[in-house]
Specification:
This protein has 208 residues and is of the alpha+beta class. Helices cover 49% and strands 19% of the residues. The protein has helices spanning 3-36, 52-76, 81-90, 92-105, 171-180, 183-190, and strands at 41-46, 112-121, 124-126, 129-131, 134-143, 150-156. Helix 2 (52-76) packs antiparallel against helix 4 (92-105). The radius of gyration is 21 Å and the shape is flat. The two termini are 30 Å apart.
Length: 208
């Protein structure tokens, strides 16, 4: 076997190992998400388009929804995800109406559609924890055509940060997770180190 063939074979084996490792990491993360998801309700807002005005409307709707749900939460003091889901389902028409009125007052002709659905999310860091990629229940709000960039956070327990800056997850949220998840899963959420880092020392052009 020539040197060129050996290099090619070695590169092929390295790439195969990388694909296997990446697939295993994804499976591990999705498995963790399956265990975490029953305790989590996410908020997912899709803008009508990527225009400046539509993206601005999406952020305003996000803030409106958070304010409405937090106001109820402060009064009701829910202790389980199911209570929040039941409230949103009961108030779906009222919440959608509030959003539509909000949009109309600002001159937008489109409407909002809201549903609680199962959605796939990429990994996302919230303050001092990271939620793994996987499927989660989510309050999904589509504005108009829903063709624009979207915004998401964790509605319950309270992870939602309006600011882009990294903020610490509230202690009561961490206490909720410690109560409902096993110790290893809690530690996995708090661990922000990557699962693996691979550097191609012989082939630097392949480095991320």
């Amino acid at each position: 076997m020539s040197l060129r063939e050996e290099i090619f074979t070695g590169l092929a084996a390295l790439l195969a190992a990388l694909l296997i490792a990446t697939g295993q990491v994804r499976l591990n993360q999705e498995s963790l998400a399956d265990r975490v998801a029953p305790q989590v309700l996410r908020l997912h807002v899709l803008a009508n388009s990527d225009s400046v005005s539509d993206q601005g409307a999406m952020l305003e709707v996000r803030s409106l929804v958070l304010e409405l749900i937090r106001k109820w939460s402060d009064e009701a003091q829910p202790t389980e995800k199911s209570e929040v889901v039941a409230h949103i389902e009961r108030q779906k028409a009222a919440l959608t109406g509030e959003i539509d009125t909000f949009l109309k007052e600002r001159g937008f002709s489109y409407h909002a559609d809201m549903e609680i659905t199962d959605s796939y999310f990429p990994p996302r860091q919230y303050g001092n924890i990271v939620l793994p990629q996987g499927s989660y229940d989510a309050v999904r709000i589509v504005l108009g055509k829903g063709d624009g960039h979207n915004w998401w956070c964790v509605l319950y327990p309270g992870f939602c940060f309006v600011k882009e800056a990294c903020e610490a997850v509230p202690e009561e949220t961490l206490a909720y997770l410690r109560e409902h998840l096993n110790r290893d899963d809690c530690l996995a959420l708090l661990d922000r180190r990557p699962d693996f880092t691979i550097r191609f020392r012989l082939f630097p052009f392949l480095n991320p």
